Amino acid sequence: MHSDPSPSGDQERREAAIDWLARIRTGAMTRADRDAFDAWLSADEANRAAFEKAFSLWRDLKGVSIPAAAAASRRPRWPLAAASLAAILFLVYFGNDLVIFWRADFSTGVGELKTVTLEDGSRIELNADTAIAEHYSGDRRRLTLLKGEAWFAVASDPVRPFVVEAAGGTTTALGTSFDIAMSAGRAQVSVTEHKVTVAAAGRTAIVEEGQQLSYSPDLPAQAAHPADVEDEAAWRRGYLIFHDKPLADVVAAVNRHFHGRILIMTPSIRDRKINGLFRTSEPLESIRAIELSLGIRAAYLGNYIIILWS
């Protein structure tokens, strides 16, 4: 089974947001344009969210400015200045996501969950902001987790192994269900039923039910350790549950459900441990609770860029 690879409504909305922002910043707005812009904002709350995110990203860019002549001129300067701004915003806003979009067969947006049933009956539950490429053939079942997190329930087929590639390693199902989460180039594998084999950086390890391990391209698969794997996959029920998780991992998890970006500016707080239960539908409340719990500071650029520091 393959999902429709055509551009999503979210992508079209992002492009429209960048177009409007570029027009506004370069003075290329007539009264009719302003009325059309107001109508576009009012038509869908998601349009407003897309525009506010584009504006936050523009404001956060360093060293980017619209030429003074363009800002001062009453005559539209769209072809030159606006095109430059739109190109920069496009790269920052879409960035690596465009490459991932082209490669992915299944994907979700921020805050979106999706369940996909494959041709063999295996099921994938995609966490928010996740992308997966499918490589099924007559003798193999192979997937690539390009970004994000997913839970896999594998249909038995002894002839065709079920393998998931992620972060430079592979996880091979041995009649099982399991979760793989990617963050900062590292993968974490948690097994909810039976077991898997994980191979990474020249080393292979078995992960039994109720265990997990982490690896990266530079970190070989280590011995698995016990974990509360149901809590690890609590996002499937609308929750994020953390037990002594580093702040960096917690922020990565919350970012999947946050229509904006949370940044950690002080390296020394990235490994501070977090314990807590948060709703995926309330990312701002999650960050405020973390801020109080760790005694760190947060700067809010609107509700779309949050900078954590100490």
If classified by CATH, what would the architecture of the largest domain be? Sandwich
* Helix content range: 25-40%
Structural class assignment: alpha+beta
What portion of residues belong to β-strands? 25-35%
Q: Count all strands and give the number.
A: 17
What does the main sheet amount to? 12 strands, mixed
Give the termini distance in whole angstroms.
47 Å
According to CATH, what is the class of the largest domain? Answer: Mainly Beta
Could you list the spans in which at least 5 consecutive residues all have pLDDT below 50? 1-8, 62-83
In CATH, the topology of the largest domain is named: Jelly Rolls
- The pLDDT mean sits at 82
Element pattern in H and E: HHHHHHEEEEEEEEEEEEHEHEEHEE
Number of helices: 9
Shape: globular
List the helices and strands and how they pair.
Blueprint: H1 9-25, H2 31-43, H3 45-60, H4 68-72, H5 78-94, H6 96-103, E1 106-107, E2 114-117, E3 123-126, E4 131-136, E5 141-147, E6 149-153, E7 162-166, E8 169-183, E9 186-200, E10 203-208, E11 211-215, E12 225-226, H7 229-232, E13 239-246, H8 247-255, E14 261-264, E15 273-279, H9 283-294, E16 297-301, E17 305-309
Parallel strand pairs: 5-7, 14-17
Antiparallel strand pairs: 1-4, 2-3, 3-6, 4-5, 6-8, 7-8, 8-9, 9-10, 9-11, 11-12, 13-15, 16-17
Helix pairs in contact: 1-3, 1-5, 2-3
Q: Your description of this structure?
A:
It is a single chain. The protein has 310 residues and is an alpha+beta fold. The protein has 3 domains: 9-94, no CATH class; 101-232, Jelly Rolls (Sandwich); 238-309, Phage tail protein beta-alpha-beta fold (3-Layer(bab) Sandwich). It contains 9 helices and 17 strands. Helix 1 (9-25) crosses helix 3. Mean pLDDT is 82; it is low at 1-8 and 62-83.
